[in-house]
Structures are given as structure tokens and as C-alpha cells.
Amino acid sequence: MDTRRINRISEEVKKIVSELLTMEVKDPRISPMISVTKVEVTKDLSYANIYVSVLGDQKAKDDTLEGLESAKGFIRKEIGNRIDLRYTPEPIFYLDESIERGIYMSKLIDKVKKEDEEKRRNSNE
């Protein structure tokens, strides 16, 4: 299948799932601080690998994944209603911690810069 079509479908699924998570899914286990970072639809359109980022502790992340698993049927039905496809891909949710890793790396870089500036000031004095 054409990769451009797969990419367009992936982006459309991402948009729909993001909208569903913020507006329509009412499960209290799903954290309000959730974002869909990436969606990869398989070439045969049978599965949609959905990567979500959750801001919070490990318990919030685990609870959110449980809530997403229980809402999987509703999410698949809504994807099918909003996208005209012969087969609706089954959503599979994964936790994406790349944003948190990026924040952690940014903090480390800032810390090293600060220490380097202090060393340079101390050596000039």
C-alpha cells in the first residue's frame, strides 16, 4: 500500500484519538495531562500503534494505560465512524516517555552549563 496514504491515515487517527481523549472519553483513570505523540498504522490497516505521553508519576501512567485499554472498543468504533475505511484498525496503546527524557536531558545540559560558568568565573578571579 502507498506509504503516503498510510501516513495520512495515521495522522487522521492521531487527530481523532487526541480529540476523543480530551473531549469524549470519561474514564477517571485517564490522566487529563495526556497527549498523543505518534500513531503508526500497519500497512494492512489492521492495527494502529498509538503512542501517548502522560505527565505524572508511574501510578498515573499505569492507570491511564488501564483506562485506555478499557476504552479501546469505544475508540475503535469512533475511528471507524469518522474515517471511511473498509477495516477499522485496532488501537494498541504504548507509553511514550520521550518528552520526559527530553526534559531530563535539558535539565542536565542546563546544570552542566551553570557549573561550567561557575568554574570559568572562579578561574578568572
TrEMBL record:
Molecular functions (GO terms): ribosomal small subunit binding
InterPro entries per record: KH_dom-like_a/b, RbfA, RbfA_dom_sf
Record flagged with keyword Cytoplasm: yes
Entries under Pfam families matching the protein: RBFA
Cross-referenced Gene3D superfamilies: 3.30.300.20
Keyword terms, alphabetized: Cytoplasm, Ribosome biogenesis
One GO CC term on file: cytosol
Example GO biological process: maturation of SSU-rRNA
Major place of residence: cytoplasm
Cell compartment(s), UniProt: Cytoplasm
Self-association state and partner proteins as the record states: Monomer. Binds 30S ribosomal subunits, but not 50S ribosomal subunits or 70S ribosomes.
NCBIfam families: rbfA (TIGR00082)
Record-stated family: Belongs to the RbfA family.
Role: One of several proteins that assist in the late maturation steps of the functional core of the 30S ribosomal subunit. Associates with free 30S ribosomal subunits (but not with 30S subunits that are part of 70S ribosomes or polysomes). Required for efficient processing of 16S rRNA. May interact with the 5'-terminal helix region of 16S rRNA.
Record PANTHER family: RIBOSOME-BINDING FACTOR A, CHLOROPLASTIC-RELATED
Name this polypeptide is given: Ribosome-binding factor A
